[in-house]
Structure formats: structure tokens, C-alpha cells
Amino acid sequence: MQQNQTSDDQHLFDLWLKGDPQGFSGLYDKYKNRVFGFLVRMTGDREIAEDLLQETFLAALRNADQFDRSRSFLSWLFGIAHKRTIDFFRHAKVETEHKSDAETAVGSKIDAPDQQLSDQNLRALINEAVETLDPLQREVFLLRELGGVPFKEIAKIMDCPINTALGRMRLALKNIRKELKKRGIDGVQ
Question: Which of 45, 78, 82, 159 has the fewest CB atoms found within 10 Å of its own CB?
């Protein structure tokens, strides 16, 4: 399956490089939802995520010559999305700091813990728990859980050793369990 997906992506990518719009649109249609889901979860804002999704694919268009064919196309896209998200948060932080200065100057897997708890409620509680994570832990968790990105690729995307990526995932899961336990949900593995 993975090999077939890779060869399909390679074919679409080759079409794209030859100027065939079906190549790019095929890859866009195939991966936009997964990348968008990642961006929404990272930013917590659908409008910002839409902007970042467009920036991600525009950056992919501009930098197609930098695509390393030994990696999966999706991992490469997640890497670009990661960089766009970091840039967004840096810009937002600087903007917040300037605004603050101006204002100052002016003045996995869950065993059904409670049979009565619906899947939707449980999902909402998990989403809330994920939002409490440190941004680096949240990113590893989302790349792995939403994107299905292998840890080796996550390490490349986040520019860290694989053991760091694994450690962040372990901490993310531990913190999600702890947060769910605070909310009365036990039995998380």
C-alpha cells in the first residue's frame, strides 16, 4: 500500500513538474484535508489554518525542486506546514509583544472508561486535553495521530533527533492521560 501510494505521488509530482496542472491538483486534492486538519489543531483557528494551508501549497509550488524523492510527499508537505505554523506563531508573538509595549506606553487508545460517555463527548474531552499540551508535544502528537507520519519523518520535520520526537510523544500521551483523569476519565492506555 505505502509503495503504491508513493509511486502514485511520484507520478503526480512528475506531471506537476512537467507543467500539467492535474499533477498539482491531484496532490492538493489528495492531501489538503490531512494538512488542513493538522493546521487547525496546531493553530486552533480554521481561518488561520486555511491561510496556512494555502501558504503551504504555495511554498510547495515555489520549492518543488527541493523535494527529496527519498521522502514521502506528505511528509514533505507536513514539513512545510510545520515551518509555516512556526512562522505564524513567531509573527503573532512579535505582534503581541509590540501591542503590549504600546498599551504599556499608553497606559491512542482508550478503553471505554464510562459506558454512558458518548464517543462525541469523549472525542471533545480528548481534543481539550490535546489543546493543553506543550506546542512541541502537541505537534508530534498531531503529526503522528492525524497525519500518520512515521517518527523518523517527524524528527526530520521538527529538526530533532528521533529519540526527542519519541520522548515528546511519550510526554504528550502521559499529559493527555493526566488531563483526562482530572476530568474524571480513567482507563486511558
Answer: 159
Q: What is the pTM of this model?
A: 0.60
Q: H-type helices in 69-118, by residue range?
A: 73-106
Q: Dump strand ranges (E) for the chain.
A: none
Cα radius of gyration rounded to whole Å, the chain: 19
Distances (CA, A) of 44 to 49, 85, 138, 141, 142: 8, 11, 12, 15, 12
In whole angstroms, give the CA distance from residue 138 to residue 172: 7
114-189 CATH, one of 1.10.10.60, 1.10.10.10, 2.40.50.630, 1.20.58.110: 1.10.10.10
Angle ∠(74,55,40) on CA atoms, nearest 5: 70
Tell me how many degrees the CA angle 161-43-75 measures, rounded to the nearest 5.
40
CA distance 131 to 106: 33
* Range(s) of the chain covered by CATH 1.10.1740.10: 1-107
Task: Dump the DSSP string for 5-17.
Answer: HHHHHHHHHHHHH
Q: What cell numbers appear for 65 in the block?
A: 525542486
- Render pLDDT for 81-126 as a digit per residue (tens, 0 to 9): 999 998 888 876 655 554 444 334 333 444 444 444 566 777 788 8
